[in-house]
Amino acid sequence: MSLADLRRSASDVYQREFGRTAQWFVAAPGRVNLIGEHTDYNDGYVLPMAIDRYVVMAAGPCAESPESGGATARFHSVELGETSEVHLQRNPGGGPVTWARYVQGVVAGFLARDVTLPAFDAVIQSTVPPGGGLSSSAALEVATATLLEAIVRKPLDPVEKAILCQQAEHASTGVPCGIMDQFSSIFGQTGALMLLDCRSQEVQMIPFASSDVTVLIANSNVKRQLTGGEYARRRAECDLACQGLGTSSLRDTTLQELDAARERLGDPGYRRARHVISENDRTVRAAAAIREGRWHDVGQLMYASHESLRDDFEVSCAELDLLVDLARESGRSGGVYGSRMTGAGFGGCTVSLVKTDCQAALAESLRSRYWETTGVEPDIFACQPAGGAHVLRV
Q1: Poorest-confidence range of 99-113, 221-235, 330-344?
Q2: What is the DSSP string of 11-57?
């Protein structure tokens, strides 16, 4: 579904659900990270891009309900067929961790900034796969923030907006995510990757201008649950490694210094730190190689990243390893430059760099061979870098 089709569909659902025409339309994209995993919360480097899969919201003003005790907003999720009511005059947090908590967290962030929000109704429709490591939650958060900006006609500074959405995820779900996902959804540009320094929050756009190279995403359809504790455990292990190294950030440690402290750190602290330190180096090198069109070099860095995530950080799974192995077996003759798991891990997606004229054949090969082994049908699609969150024309 194109973005225009998605907007029209959300508009039709709004008319059907609320009996009137929507006034505001916004979109926020998901993202795929080409390389640089579990480095964002370690002050490191990441190299994501926004993808042409979006969360779209259609919304319009409504009258306040006397029974609600103040202004409220009704958010209707098309995919889930659910409607959640969010209070707009007091902290709307609490309750089980569902999609509505992400919306509530963003609303709470605006209220904390003394923004007055009028009553409204909204429809949410999304083509970002949930639980696939493509930042469906960040896209929902950023879409909500973009909608609230449009309603009150007061845009936030983009960096402040990204941090507000990150804090919404922290407070609402307990997941201590870094800033990559929200920055990607806000700052994404058509035809460019984003090299983000997660310490300085400096963004460098890396042109991805070759029509001969395509990003291929393969969703293993193994759903991940970050609230299960593994993500937080990895972050805590990185913090413990910093303590053992006597540094505030793994960003400031070399592999030589890490090796010298190996006995003191023990396992898994040593391996967790080795992944982060080596991944920062791979990410910076990959950005340079993309600038120069050295796609084979980028591919080798992607494979090395996957091996590090699998062996040192231990966040891969059998299904992700299989997809990477199948892509690697296709090799250069099959048009594959490189492949790796993407996202936090424990399921989700792989990302591969492939020759454009080979991507259809590779997708079919991956689909059939993965199904033969697992009995699960993967979702595979090609994409190019897309633009970030914005207000859609009516």
Answers
A1: 221-235
A2: HHHHHHHHSS---EEEEEEEEEEEE--S-GGGT-EEEEEEEEEEEEE
